[in-house]
Design brief:
Layout (H helix, E strand, L loop, with lengths): L2 H15 L6 H29 L3 H9 L4 H8 L4 H11 L9 H30 L3 H14 L4 H28 L2 H13 L7 H35 L3 H18 L5 H23 L7 H13 L6 H47 L1
């Protein structure tokens, strides 16, 4: 039986017996009980301070030291405790500090919160012993730090491992640049920019950024060359929808990477892009109720220019639209002529009426 439980059982036995005679054994037991309460209160205070500072793992570790603190506190909080305190005060026995239930609850809460952290702690220790890769150890440490933000121990360990990881990345970066492995360069850039660095290596990040920009611009130029080829194919197939999508990709690559395509590539793409713009204008004019003769002539000139790449349905639709406009125009002209004729007849009638009256 643990010593603290033996002391508590003897104290409870005295209270239950009803015999309040203070013997030497009772005085000795009272001293042991008071010492046990003081020791538990002192340890509880230290655990609470650790928990308040965010050092939950240390608080739990101290509470688990034999005898376990929560077991001791539970034993000290026995039902007859108020009667023992009265007896001690009556006979001048050593006073026992009361249990701070608020602090006990805080330590108990630390135990509940430490469960996911303990798994990480075990993993952290295993990795350290196995000399696991620095990047893996950093990931675990950063998780531990997020769980215990106010624990300075994690910050110091992270700082040391980050310095080691930066050296690794610098060596790796120099190697992949020399070998021309752009994908690995981008992987290094991703780690540098997406990791939650405690001390970001600003100069190194800037060096990698400049290199990544060059790599991305080179890739963008390759993409533009392919897009130009695809635009020519879309025009040859008279695929307006496909050409629109390709034009969006063309504009995105130029804007995203702040580049201008090579002159040869630009010339190759300019004709399909111009064709697409003219096709879109023709489509827009299909929804215009009235067109001026100059506009109609211009649209027909576009159709003549792109006759080889003109979608048949578009040409037919435009011709039908122009025919409708012409029919409407003829109808309006006839109405105008009718009105003019009526006005002329009316004027003649008035003229002859005046002549008749003047006679």
């Amino acid at each position: 039986m643990p010593d603290h439980q033996r002391i508590v059982n003897e104290v409870r036995g005295i209270i239950r017996s009803g015999n309040q005679t203070v013997t030497e054994r009772v005085r000795e037991l009272a001293g042991q009980f008071a010492q046990l309460c003081a020791s538990a209160s002192s340890r509880l205070q230290r655990c609470d301070e650790y928990a308040f500072q965010g050092r939950r793992s240390e608080a739990v570790q101290l509470a688990r030291v034999q005898p376990p603190l929560l077991e001791v506190l539970a034993a000290l909080n026995f039902p007859e405790r108020p009667q023992w305190d009265e007896l001690a005060a009556m006979y001048g026995l050593p006073a026992c500090p009361a249990i701070d239930t608020g602090r006990a609850a805080a330590v108990n809460g630390a135990f509940a919160e430490i469960q996911p952290q303990e798994t990480l702690l075990l993993e952290h220790r295993r990795m350290a012993m196995a000399r696991a890769p620095v990047i893996q150890r950093l990931q675990v440490l950063r998780q531990l730090c997020r769980l215990e933000l106010r624990n300075p121990a994690w910050g110091k360990q992270i700082e040391a491992l980050e310095a080691a990881r930066v050296k690794e990345l610098q060596t790796e970066f120099a190697k992949v640049v020399w070998q021309g492995h752009s994908d690995k360069t981008l992987a290094i850039w991703t780690e540098l920019t997406e990791s939650q660095w405690q001390n970001p290596p600003a100069e190194f990040i800037e060096s990698v950024r400049q290199w990544v920009v060059q790599v991305q611009q080179q890739k963008a130029k390759v993409n533009l060359k392919q897009i130009a080829n695809d635009l020519s194919l879309a025009m040859a197939r008279r695929d307006i929808a496909g050409a629109r999508e390709l034009r969006q990709k063309w504009d995105y690559e130029i804007a995203q990477h702040a580049i201008q395509p090579d002159e040869t590539v630009s010339r190759k793409a300019s004709n399909p892009i111009e064709w697409l713009a003219d096709m879109e204008m023709l489509i827009e004019k299909l929804h215009t109720p009235d067109l001026e003769p100059d506009e109609i002539n211009y649209q027909y000139s576009l159709m003549d220019r792109w006759q080889q790449f003109l979608p048949p349905n578009l040409e037919n639709a435009y011709q039908n639209h122009v025919s409708q406009i012409n029919r409407k125009s003829v109808g309006r002209e006839r109405k105008v002529l009718a009105v003019v004729a009526i006005v002329c007849i009316a004027l003649l009638f008035v003229f002859f009426a005046l002549i008749f009256l003047l006679r």
